[in-house]
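**Backbone shape codes:**
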Amino acid sequence: MISHRVKLLLDIAGFQVIWFACALGVPNGVEWIVYPLGLIYVFQHLYFSNQRNFELRLILKSVLLGLVVDSGLVIIHALSFTSSNNWIQPLWMTILWASLGASLSSSLSWLKSRQWIAAILGAIVGPLSYLGGEKFGALVIHGMPGFIALAICWAIVMRLALSWLNQKDVEPSY
């Protein structure tokens, strides 16, 4: 059996691998690498989970939330993806949102009862993550209004997503 600490490190490292695969793979023409890596990450997360059905629901909710948030940001011209059309988020971004969903009950679970801290961190770290993706060439944030829209969305995203953990008395997934 794998220890809690090893599983937590797998979760943190796995999410970072997916983020870098998206940020580096998309602008360099190897977007395809995101898909097998994302599936491996999500499947290993579910494999080690004690609450697979609940985890799967978190992942699916995150994917749907990401579709709404990122597509909405594209529609209002807050951002655009370099590998996508002009009205919906690309599939590689969906994989990243699924990875976020997998992280909710593990590496992000410490924020479960700290909703305001989660919102503040979301408002800071969310846009910075997109800014990093922009620096690598995976997307474009359209000026300060785009950055502000990202900050507002990510404050809400983190509060909402972590509230899903409170719908069930969730112990860390690992």
In short: Strands lie at 79-81, 139-141. The chain has a mean pLDDT of 91.
